[in-house]
Design goal:
With 404 residues, the chain is of the alpha+beta class. It folds into three domains: 15-128, Immunoglobulins (Immunoglobulin-like, Sandwich), CATH 2.60.40.10; 145-258, no CATH class; 269-398, Glutaredoxin. Helix content is 39%, strand content 21%. The chain contains eleven helices and 17 strands. Strands 15-14-13-16-17 form a five-stranded mixed β-sheet. It starts with a helix and ends in a 6-residue tail after the last helix.
Length: 404
């Protein structure tokens, strides 16, 4: 009898690590995070903060703080669904980007974390994909294991991306002007890497769309630069069982699919130099490819691209290539002065609502220059139509006019 009672007590103790009783007597799942950080300054503040969008946790507490005592800390709470959080050592001496940060895909379970100070990455390292998720021992979260597996398989592709950017930056610092062929070669390698990354993230997302990790990677694919699903890929996600997917996320997927590669362009309204309203649909010519370019007078990279755009326009406009430039200047005088200075040959328009208007809300443009190529059939061909990427596309469409 004593042996049976001991077993029952052991079961109750284990079970109570993950569950609490509510006032009504119902059992409620909670999380308990037990952290052990060796070498970290005693008494420092430790913060647990949600990194997924707020709707992933349906409005429950998204941030809390505790103090590191004898190298340890603990958080107890509840998450409605597994979600990505950052545990940050709030060392006020260091800048925010240099503070030690541990990514954790949190779920309602008992989670144990062990790490040494020199093993913990900074926030900047995580943001720049220079963080090894295998470095820190985290046990007790199945979602975190899945997230680490995703990141570990993505890491070699991300390393290739970093090497390409390093090569590109080196050329820029050395002011090396690439030939058309050299530029296209580098752009092609970027595209191969980008396609590989997109394919991996899409397949992972599709295979895990019924759980929070897969839904988070879907969110990342829309929000983060460098990974953009096509219309067909978005539709394949929407065709899956979406009963357990947050309605806000589903709505965002539908919105992004509207302006993804392969979708029909969405009409917009702009203003010309005479203050008259002009629809984008009136500027898209049938049987022609049209580059819709968003820029502004204050945007350095935008203006740096203009000489090449002028060269391309001269070469390929007779072949049927058209350009429509829409400024996101809030000040019309600044726009008109820049247009006069740059002496662009094609028609110019402006949307003074800038990032607060439909260009951001519908086309999801959050930074400029942003370039969309619209095909003769009215579909979006690509949203990467700058520099050598544009040269490669034009040669494919019309043949190589640069050599002439």
């Amino acid at each position: 009898m004593k042996k049976i009672l001991s077993l029952i007590m052991l079961f109750v103790l284990c079970f109570s690590c993950k569950e609490n009783k509510t006032n009504t007597g119902e059992i409620e799942e909670v999380y308990t995070i037990n952290g052990n950080l060796k070498g970290v300054v005693e008494g420092v503040e430790i913060t647990l903060k949600l990194q997924s969008p707020d709707y992933f946790n349906n409005g429950t507490e998204i941030s809390k703080t505790t103090i590191l005592k004898k190298g340890g800390f603990q958080f107890i709470g509840k998450t409605n669904k597994p979600a990505l959080y950052f545990i940050t050592v709030e060392d006020t001496i260091k800048k925010r980007g240099d503070r030690l940060t541990i990514p954790l895909f949190l779920e309602n379970s008992t989670i144990n974390i062990e790490a040494k100070e020199n093993e913990i990455a900074t926030l900047n390292a995580i943001r720049s994909s220079k963080y090894d998720y295998q470095n820190i021992k985290i046990e007790g979260s199945k979602s975190h294991v899945q997230y680490v597996d995703f990141q570990s398989n993505l890491a070699p592709i991300t390393k290739e991306t970093a090497a390409l950017w390093e090569e590109n930056t080196k050329n820029w610092k050395e002011k090396k002007k690439l030939t058309i062929d050299e530029g296209i070669n580098l752009a092609s390698r970027f595209e191969v890497n980008s396609d590989k990354k997109k394919e991996y993230i899409f397949n992972f997302t599709k295979n895990n769309f019924n759980n929070s990790v897969g839904q988070y990677t879907a969110y990342c694919a829309m929000k983060f630069i460098g990974v953009k699903f096509s219309k067909d890929q978005f539709y394949r996600l929407l065709s899956l069982d979406t009963d357990d997917v947050n309605p806000i996320l589903l709505n965002e997927i539908k919105e992004y699919s509207r302006v993804s590669v392969g979708a029909d362009y969405v009409d917009l309204t702009f203003v010309n130099s005479k203050n008259k309203l002009v629809k984008l649909s009136s500027l898209i010519e049938k049987n022609k490819y049209t580059l819709v370019e968003f820029w502004a007078s204050w945007c350095g990279p935008c203006r740096a691209d203009i000489p090449h755009l002028k060269e391309v326009y001269k070469l390929y406009n007779p072949e049927g290539f058209n350009i429509v430039s829409i400024s996101l200047d809030e000040n019309k005088d600044s726009w008109q002065e820049a247009v006069k200075e740059e002496q662009m040959y094609w028609k110019q328009y402006i949307d003074t609502t800038a990032f607060n208007g439909d260009i951001n809300k519908i086309y999801k443009v959050q930074g400029i220059p942003a370039c969309f190529l619209i095909g003769p059939d009215g579909k979006i061909v690509t949203d990467n139509m700058r520099g050598s990427y544009m040269d490669k596309r034009l040669i494919k469409m019309y043949g190589n006019k640069f050599k002439k």
